[in-house]
Amino acid sequence: MLLMVKRMLSIMGIVELLRAAKCCTWYNVLLLSLIAAAVCMRRLPYYTEILLFVWVLAIVAFALFMSRMKEIHSIGFWHILPCALMLPIFFYSAVEIRQWPQGLAVLIFVTLGCTVNDVGAYFVGRAVGTHKLAPIISPGKTVEGGLGGMVSSVILMGLIASLYSQCAGVEIRYGWLLLYLFLASIVGQFGDLAMSTIKRTVGIKDFSRILPGHGGILDRFDSFLFAAPFAVLYGNMTGCFPL
Q1: Which residues contact 116 (CB under 8 A, 6 or more apart)?
Q2: Is the pLDDT of residue 148 over 80?
Q3: Long-range contact list for 163-171, CB < 8 A, 24+ apart?
């Protein structure tokens, strides 16, 4: 069931990207949807290595995109193709997490962490934000808001992890957990900025209106797209997710 949901989310995200780039033809949708379905069909060989490569590639690509945003006035199929191919791999990370011991708890923890980070950044930014974080990409985001989101995430998710440890009898590796929360906050905010870069370039506010009040699939899962793969990489590289 979860695999089917992630497959559908991947296809819907691909359609949103193609519409944003004004190249949403049936053959483009079919081609990328078939690739998404194939990726989500079963666990890929060398999945961690592939995920690490794609994740680093995505960060480098979006970092270059952001740095050259003033020079790019429109995007087409070839511009969004790398991002469209990344979506199924990134969404599949949620399936990978679900198969871990305590997988459901970890998946909820990662998702909730992204939400706390976003909410904390919003309210702190509105209250005391004065220094723009990325004025061209997202004028509303501030450095103070970003730090506020990070602190909110570390404190609140640390408390939630501690409560979960006591209720479920699970040992928490707090050192690794704090490091994860700190890095995941940065990764999540980068994902938010990455999607904002695409929207700002094509001149749209939301990728779609499929989710009333939240925009599209990519609007709702922008930070999760980078945070979920990071959780998989962090868990695999440290031997076990610290929850």
Answers
A1: 149, 152, 153, 156, 157
A2: yes
A3: 164/105, 164/109, 164/243, 168/102, 168/105, 170/102, 170/243
- Mean pLDDT computed over 192-202: 83
For 71, what's the count of Cα atoms within 13 Å in the CB-facing half-sphere? 5
154-159: long-range contacts at Cβ-Cβ below 8 A with a sequence spacing of 24 or more? Answer: 154/178, 154/181, 154/182, 154/185, 156/116, 156/120, 157/109, 157/112, 157/113, 157/116, 157/181
Q: Which residue has the tokens 């009898």?
A: 169
Q: Are 104 and 98 in contact (CB under 8 A)?
A: yes
Helix locations, 71-128, DSSP H: 77-98, 103-128
Give the pTM: 0.84
- What DSSP state is assigned to residue 76? -
Angle 77-80-86 from CA coordinates, rounded to 5°: 130
- Residue 168, judged by CB atoms within 10 A of its CB (0-12, 13-18, 19+), counts as exposed
- Of 229, 221, 233, 231, which is closest to residue 194 (Cα–Cα)? 221
Predicted pLDDT of residue 224: 84
DSSP collapsed to 3 states, 179-202 = HHHHHHHHHHHHHHHHHHHHHHHH
**Coil/strand/helix, residue 100:** coil
Q: Please name the residue that has the structure tokens 């490091």.
A: 179
Coil/strand/helix, residue 132:
strand
